[in-house]
Amino acid sequence: MPHVVKWELAYEDSAEAKGTERKYTDTYIATLEKIDTSPFHIFTYKDCPKYGERHPVDKAAFTTRVKPTRIGHSRLWKVVVESTTDSTSVDNNPNPLARPAVITWETRIEVVPTLFEANGRLRINPVGDLVPGKRKKPFRTYTIRKNVSQIPDWFSSLPGTTNQFDFYFDGKVRPKRTLQMLDGPKPEKELENGKWYYPLSFKIEEDIETYDVLEPATSFHELVQTGYINSPKGLIPEYTKKRILVGTPKEYAKDKQFIDKKGKAIVLQEDMKKGGIDVSKIYMQRRRDLIEVDYSVIQPTIT
């Protein structure tokens, strides 16, 4: 008895014309001899279209893909045959593992909170209070699709991380901490043209301003030098943390005060300049909250 005991049309065909290119999808139902008969025999069956064969009607189109999928837990297999007139199609390689990654992207605009004006200056009022605002910010999300022989370990461990180093991606070097790996669906193993593979799909989001968070340093305390300490390198200043005093007469600050890089409180009123308060002394802290990973581990998957 033959391995394929029945072959018939499924009448789920489709066609598409775009410019000079025409695409066809023909669907068949193959009944195998036994439930454990290998689907490999579908590819060698006499009536199953072979890679590179001409379409039965449109002779300018060639078969580029044959994909069987089992129906339930039966001996029946749905066989989808794709053909195209585009001889440069990335799907033309009969080996699904040899096809290059397909990268697409889309840009969205989000309204995000901000402490800065468009020129990078802190949003601060004449008395030195921060005035949080909102602005529109673009984020670009890349979708990468690549057939792989095994699901890589990083596929489940990298989501939520950012690139530790500059990373070459989609024809451009992306600065460190400007990319973030997002989740991707777990792929199921598939068989095509006699090759088993996993159709991996994942997303990478890009923030050209980096995923670092910049914020001004504020505190109820400041560091005050109280003396010196002997060290192998000589005398070094000794500091003590003390509550910040403001006003006349002096009293403990009821609001957090700006501090400079050395931890000393800044009296903004003493730094008044024409056009507003001088904020150049305020220490801007850079928060790197996302876990940083060397993204070179995904390089083989996106090339």
Describe the structure.
- This protein has two helices and 24 strands.
- With 303 residues, it is an all-beta fold.
- The mean pLDDT is 88.
Computed Rg: 31 Å
- Principal-axes geometry comes out as elongated
Helical/strand content category: mainly beta
Number of distinct beta strands: 24
Number of helices: 2
Mean pLDDT: 88
The unreliable regions are none
Strand content: over 45%
Helix-strand topology string: EEEHEEEEHEEEEEEEEEEEEEEEEE
Biggest sheet descriptor: 5 strands, antiparallel
Question: Helix proportion of residues, in percent?
Answer: under 10%
Terminal residue distance: 44 Å
Explain the layout of strands and helices:
Layout lengths: L3 E6 L4 E5 L2 E12 L7 H5 L17 E9 L5 E9 L17 E13 L18 E16 L5 H4 L4 E2 L3 E3 L2 E3 L4 E3 L8 E3 L2 E12 L6 E4 L1 E2 L1 E11 L2 E10 L1 E2 L4 E2 L4 E2 L13 E2 L2 E2 L6 E4 L4 E2 L10
Parallel strand pairs: 8-24
Antiparallel strand pairs: 1-3, 2-3, 3-5, 4-5, 6-7, 7-13, 9-10, 11-13, 12-13, 14-23, 15-20, 16-17, 18-19, 21-22
Features:
303 residues, mainly beta, 46% strand, elongated
At a glance:
Helices cover 3% and strands 46% of the residues. It has 303 residues and is mostly beta strands. Strands 1, 2, 3, 4 and 5 form a five-stranded antiparallel sheet that branches.
